Amino acid sequence: MVARxxxxxRTPLSPRDRPVPAxxxxxxxxxxxxxxxxxxxRDELEQLTTGLLVHPCARTRWMHRASLxxxxxxxxxxxxxxxxxxxxxxxxxxAGWEWVPPGLTGPQRLRFTKGTxxxxxxxxxxxAYEWLFASRLLGVYDQYRxxxxxxxxxxxxxxxxxxxxxxxxxxxxxxxxxRMVIVTGKDLLSLNVDDVLDYARARRATGRIAASLSFAYxxxxxxxxLEGGPLTLRQVEARGQLTPGELADRATSLRxxxxxxxxxxxxxxxxxxxxEPLYQDFEWGGxxxxxxxxxxxxxxxxxxxxxxxxxxxxxxEGTALGVDADGALRLRDDAGTxxxxxxxxxxx
Length: 348
Known about the structure:
Radius of gyration: 29 Å
Number of strands: 5
Oligomer: single chain
Strand content: 5-15%
């Protein structure tokens, strides 16, 4: 007989020994449709929570069930027709550290958080980004990917590993996509560009950076998601999310403006004639001439953001004061420090 830790028992079983009762295999938590389990009954959720475990011992099963029951008892104290409605009425999303009921001990708080994590994996509640960012959900995102859209998440994980980046960068990109699915309640491949931008705004609102969001965008795009969206997140933030149809509606031409065709050679000659004196001034006075002309036509001071070349989510925010003689943008941040920005994308 093989013992618990894989060793052979020293004493063989006696024929008089009672047979060991077989433990019923719990039902595996199957893929739930979006919103399907937000109105599930307690019995169904308690049965499904055991299916999240792999070869659990009796104590682990008890701990999972007790943690879940603890949170369900608390949520039932709020009115609502679904667990998600009760979660929203609890105001937990914006309560910070005080989101749990008062008076809990440390172990009770851990159990309470564990029970909430179970409800997240079962897609019974959908906390907001603010709550997810502030909570330490050890293993919850891995469990969510294992039991929800596992094939798609597995494909994304394989794509991420082939990119050859750091494991931390890969994990955070997958966690970002997992948070989007949790909050929106959508399937992974149903996420759109607006969902990604909502995540980026929520991340920055809490003072956190979204350094792996571009990686997450690339993974989702490569898996067939974000249909109709630009190839990269940088293009999304730089061009204001214009679709090809919207761009066609806004684009114009001299022919459309004048209502008649033009000789392109004559147009080019007129442009060069206008540029020639400006070019001569530039040759004579150097970059300072161009900088002065730029400042004369700019609306200053002007609040703006600059996306650094290192990534579309590395922002420098402040007030544009103009450009110096070398053409670098002078940007004053909220602390009063003036930065020289040599390259980057300037956005309002």
